[in-house]
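Recall that a protein's primary structure is simply its ordered list of amino acids. Everything else, from secondary elements to tertiary packing, is in principle encoded there. The following example makes that idea concrete.
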Amino acid sequence: IMALGEHKANLPTDQDILFVKVATGIGAGIIAGGNLERGAQGTAGDLGHVRVPGGPETLCTCGNVGCLEAVASGPAIALKLGLSPKPGQNIPSLVAQQVRDGDAAAIAAVRQAGRDLGSVLATCVSLLNPSVIVVGGSLAQVGEHLLAGIREVVYQRSLPLATKHLRIIASSAGSHAGVLGAVALATEFALSPKAVEGSKPD
């Protein structure tokens, strides 16, 4: 939904987009040829449980070790930094605040999280050949530190042909991406002329 929102609101001319949400969890939305790709069972884009190449053997909530979510999500970074969030406090936002405050350890941890993300996204670039990777979610509030880590690895590991015109940017829609996507989904699918005509009784 966030990928669709970003596409419709800010990147209408881009037909191949990979939207990556980095927050408490990590996931992706895929726009290919202008269409939202869901996969056979609707699980396309589940990046969070892809193993980080050469990453630490951190136990993930799924039971496997070394998953991207266990290494580079907001809670994973907070754990590395020894942060203790207050009840109800958004953990990725807490990490982002540490970065904005200039905490060197937090900046280094976020940059490394970006590299870990980049090592997985480099494979996605080779597989999907997107024109743009958009990074959203509450951890994207850290700005260039996360993006720099992603770019560092993606541009290093992916073939020049795939990265020649590739942009890696922060979400312009921000926290509104999901709402914008839901509106687009409703208007283009549920309320499309075809859907409305099909719902009329004979």
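The mean pLDDT is 88. Strands lie at 17-22, 26-32, 35-37, 132-136, 167-170.
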